[in-house]
């Protein structure tokens, strides 16, 4: 393993942390409807739990309503029950062969709770990034100990890894500011 390998590996891990944060932030409700909030709903489909997106077509009817159209008409009641029991605060209503899922408007208090949740997710991601930095620095120290590189190379490598860390922490802060603005917009 070389210093370049350590840097590359570190950058990949930090990128994965950012991707994970993006996925977590996408689940945070903002008052506008988006099909992503139903991603984790499981439906009993012929005896096995299946993701809702595998048994129905999810669409946006308008800014506050999600349309769920099952591929199999017999699944209407099962899907409606699954959405209701998913503890998302949603109350689906069947209308012919379509299930309408209105997303309720968020209160000011709920919006502030969402912002706290977003900041908590961001802090967890920053901790993850710092742990990745620590592991990378330990790998660099091991390279010096094994006499694969010099102490000067190690110091330069640590500086590069710190720059990567700063870059990814700034990216986390940027994502949080965007999501906070999105959540607080009425």
UniProtKB/TrEMBL annotation:
InterPro entries attached to this UniProt entry: Ribosome_recyc_fac, Ribosome_recyc_fac_dom, RRF_sf
Record-annotated Ribosome recycling factor domain positions: 22-184
Subcellular location: Cytoplasm
Gene3D superfamilies from the UniProt entry: 3.30.1360.40, Ribosome-recycling factor
Any one Pfam family match given in the protein's UniProt record, by short name: RRF
Transmembrane spans: none
Superkingdom of source: Bacteria
Keywords: Cytoplasm, Protein biosynthesis
Family in the record: Belongs to the RRF family.
PANTHER family, A to Z: MITOCHONDRIAL RIBOSOME RECYCLING FACTOR PSEUDO 1, RIBOSOME RECYCLING FACTOR
Function: Responsible for the release of ribosomes from messenger RNA at the termination of protein biosynthesis. May increase the efficiency of translation by recycling ribosomes from one round of translation to another.
Name of protein: Ribosome-recycling factor
Phylogenetic classification of the source organism: Bacteria, Pseudomonadati, Pseudomonadota, Betaproteobacteria, Burkholderiales
């Amino acid at each position: 393993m070389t210093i370049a390998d350590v840097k590359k590996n570190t950058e990949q891990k930090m990128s994965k942390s950012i991707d994970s944060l993006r996925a977590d932030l996408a689940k945070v409700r903002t008052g506008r409807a988006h099909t992503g909030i139903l991603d984790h709903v499981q439906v009993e489909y012929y005896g096995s739990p299946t993701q809702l997106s595998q048994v129905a077509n999810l669409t946006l009817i308008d800014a506050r309503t999600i349309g769920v159209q099952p591929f199999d008409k017999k699944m209407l009641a099962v899907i409606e029950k699954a959405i209701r029991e998913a503890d998302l605060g949603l109350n689906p209503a069947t209308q012919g062969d379509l299930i309408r899922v209105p997303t309720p408007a968020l209160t000011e208090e709920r919006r502030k709770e969402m912002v706290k949740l977003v900041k908590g997710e961001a802090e967890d991601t920053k901790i993850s990034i710092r742990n990745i930095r620590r592991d990378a620095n330990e790998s660099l120290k091991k390279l010096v100990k094994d006499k694969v590189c010099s102490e000067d190379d190690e110091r330069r490598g640590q500086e590069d890894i710190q720059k990567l860390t700063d870059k990814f922490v700034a990216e986390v802060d940027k994502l949080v500011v965007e999501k906070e603005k999105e959540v607080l917009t009425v």
